[in-house]
Amino acid sequence: MAAQTFADLAQALQDLENNGLAAIAEAASPAVLEQLRVDYLGKKGGLSQVLRGMGQLPPAERPQVGALANQVKDRLQEALGQRVAQVQAQALETRLQVETLDVTMPGLGHAPGHSHPLQQTLQRVLDIFVGLGYQVVQGPEVETDYYNFAALNFLPDHPARDMQDTYYLPDGRLLRTHTSTVQIRYMETHQPPLRIVVPGRVYRRDTVDATHSAMFHQVEILAVERGLTFTDLQGTLVAFIQALFGEVPVRFRASYFPFTEPSAEVDLQWRGRWLEVLGCGLVDPNVLQAVGYDPEQYTGFAAGLGIERLAMICHEIDDIRRFYTSDLRFLTQF
């Protein structure tokens, strides 16, 4: 193979520059331009290949070839930089055209969600009792006969234990018929003084109609300490009712519950008529003994109310079933 001359190397450098500039001008993406940089200016690129022939030149001609090579390198690098900027600008312009937003177009509205009317009523009730110093406590919905009946002073032949009134499970357990079960569980593991409010779902074998449901929501309160009286219970419930309904007349009527003695029903006067809203009483000594409290030292009071009942009064709803239909025409009114 004949030795390369100065003229051969100079021509090779000129050809390399011309080919490189042409390829750069046609490149349409940053990735292609990066590959061209490697092909022409990399360690194993075209420029390095040409410069390997410098070793065959006389020493006096080598600096001239090196100067020509540097000029070719500078022009190729400059062309690469300019083309990269052009390609990036074109890509940005294309993206802006595709993603352009017409700020004059009307926006799309999304109606925000809100709490169910039962949840709203429940939260109002809990907020009032928490403000009175009560702690929110919850418990299981599947219960045993002991917690649902025996510990609450229900006699073995009490009608509430009948199959037609309570949902019994195959294993002998049952769906709780009231949230009083949580009171027993809480007292078993805590010592007085205590004040709790217990929200939750309860289940009864009621025929579903405008005022009854097989499942409904209940809230109960329990307070136990030394020296509590029925007057304390009355003051608590009047404060609760008037916080919820305003300055309305309230009355207490004698009643009966297995787990309280004495017991009462509480009515309020609402829009010209008396409406029953909850039941209450002093905790029966037998219930206190069942959880290990000494009824000679401690007394307590309890009260229970239905959330559906309160919501129907507050919002003047005539049918309890409306709460469970998921009819947005009804629900969006609250």
TrEMBL record:
UniProt-recorded Gene Ontology molecular function terms: ATP binding; magnesium ion binding; phenylalanine-tRNA ligase activity; tRNA binding
Keyword Protein biosynthesis among record annotations: yes
Tell me its family: Belongs to the class-II aminoacyl-tRNA synthetase family. Phe-tRNA synthetase alpha subunit type 1 subfamily.
Keywords of this entry? Aminoacyl-tRNA synthetase, ATP-binding, Cytoplasm, Ligase, Magnesium, Metal-binding, Nucleotide-binding, Protein biosynthesis
What are the recorded Gene Ontology BP terms?
Answer: phenylalanyl-tRNA aminoacylation
Q: Which cofactor does it need?
A: Mg(2+)
Q: Where is the Aminoacyl-transfer RNA synthetases class-II family profile domain?
A: 118-313
Catalytic activity, as annotated: tRNA(Phe) + L-phenylalanine + ATP = L-phenylalanyl-tRNA(Phe) + AMP + diphosphate + H(+)
> What enzyme class is recorded for this protein?
ligase
Pfam families on file: Phe_tRNA-synt_N (PF02912), tRNA-synt_2d (PF01409)
Q: Which InterPro entries match?
A: aa-tRNA-synth_II, aa-tRNA-synth_II/BPL/LPL, Phe-tRNA-synth_IIc_asu, Phe-tRNA_ligase_II_N, Phe_tRNA_ligase_alpha1_bac, Phenylalanyl-tRNA_Synthase, tRNA-bd_arm
Q: Which residues bind Mg(2+)?
A: 261
Predominantly, its location class is cytoplasm
GO cellular component annotations of the record:
cytoplasm
Name by which UniProt lists this protein: Phenylalanine--tRNA ligase alpha subunit
Known HAMAP family for this protein? Phe_tRNA_synth_alpha1
UniProt cofactor note? Binds 2 magnesium ions per tetramer.
Location relative to the cell: Cytoplasm
Q: How does it assemble?
A: Tetramer of two alpha and two beta subunits.
Enzyme Commission number(s) from the entry? 6.1.1.20
